[in-house]
Structures are given as structure tokens and as C-alpha cells.
Amino acid sequence: MNNRGKEVQARLEGPSIAQGRLEAPEPQARIYAYTRGDAEAGTSRVVTGQISIATYDAIALFDSGATHSFISLEFAQKLGRGLEDVS
Question: Which domain of life is it from (predicted)?
Fold first, then answer.
């Protein structure tokens, strides 16, 4: 197995302790905008809840039929995340 194969295998297996240090793979993140109108036009599959993200409490809408995840601009700024046009 070449080095690239070992890297892919290590990422699939998760954090590595074999080398004497913990190496977690870098998470892939993407943030989308969700307006109040979008939330009000929701379906019956939407439930609300409170979750903790990076030590910040957030009120979340969980939609089992959603194809994307969304976050408010204010919360994205609190997390220090940049905005990116995905259209």
C-alpha cells in the first residue's frame, strides 16, 4: 500500500494514536442562510431543539427532509465562519 493509501485508510479509521499523538481529520463545513420566511413555510417534519455548537448554545430546527444545513448570519459570525456564495 502506498503512502496515499495509508492516509486514506487512516482517515477512514478515525484518530490515530499509533504515532504517539492524536490526529483527528479536519472537518468539512458548509453553512447556508435560512430566513424567517423559510422557517415559517416549513413542513410538519420540522422539530425544534437546543444544541451546543463550539460551546455556544443554539436553537435549531431539525427537518428530516432537508438536503442542506443552515445557520443564521449572526451565529456564523459568532463562530468566526466566513460566508461563501454557493450559487
Answer: Eukaryota
d(CA 15, CA 71): 28
H/E stretch holding 13: helix 3-13
Residue 57 has pLDDT above 80, yes or no: yes
Q: Tell me the CA distances in angstroms from 86 to 30, 35, 42, 83, one per residue in order.
A: 9, 16, 22, 9
Residue 21, pLDDT > 70, answer: no
- Cα(74)–Cα(51) distance, integer angstroms: 16
Average pLDDT, the chain: 68
The span from the CA of 9 to the CA of 1, in Å, is: 10
27 close to 20: Cβ distance less than 8 angstroms: no
